[in-house]
Amino acid sequence: MSRRDQRFRRGTKGRCCECGCILSHWYYEKEGQLYCKKHYWARYGEHCHGCRDTIATGVIMVAGEQKYHPECFTCMSCEMFIGDGDSYTLVERTKLYCGHCFCPGEVSAARSASSLTKRPHTVALVSLPPHAGRGLSVATDLSQETGPLVTVTGLDSSTLSPELLSSVHMGDRVLEVNGIPVLNISPDEINCVIQDTNRPLQLTIEHNPQSPDDPPLSNDAPGQRQLS
Predict the structure, then answer these.
(1) Above 90 in pLDDT, residue 115?
(2) Average pLDDT of 3-30?
(3) Cα three-residue angle 28-32-37, rounded to 5 degrees
(4) Any idea where the PDZ domain is (predicted)?
(5) What's residue 30's pLDDT?
(6) Quick one: how far is CA 138 from the chain centroid?
(7) pTM of the full predicted structure?
(8) What CATH number should be reported for the domain whose range is 121-227?
(9) Does residue 124 have a pLDDT over 90?
């Protein structure tokens, strides 16, 4: 899906391969097929995880792999809008909570309703204020073909708030640092940002339950770098 698929037609008119409407001026072309705007976006556009409609233009709110219209990015508990940079937790890819409404009880309820005995899948944006110590350490695995894998390897319960400890766990994956995907940040830069306690820190964290056969995380695994 790209604006490069958009074309302007002069002279001979074509028809949309989906609805057959005449394409007199602007149209879209993909894999040799012509589309009107409506059916191009319906087939190739992003779809909002909230309302299920196509996201054709404008800002997209992202929580893990799920995308939303800004007006659909709302807490299912208080129904307030969750703005860009506001803390949130997405439970089991469907239940979205703002930072004020999410609590460990929500996770317990989701766990009891699931066939899994572990904590459910969550994606959370958490904020760590400027502090004498972060209370959190991560490791970067550089051996992954898809890019660096950044995981949480240490949590200090005496430093972190109960709210943070309910959202972040050992082995969780860090997806973004201050809104920037870890794929676009060098391991050294990640280290510097986390160690800079003079500035607030925001992390997008994914908890993805592992199968019982998965090996435990090792701090000494090849290609990993310890960051704290």
Answers:
(1) no
(2) 71
(3) 15
(4) 122-209
(5) 80
(6) 18
(7) 0.68
(8) 2.30.42.10
(9) yes
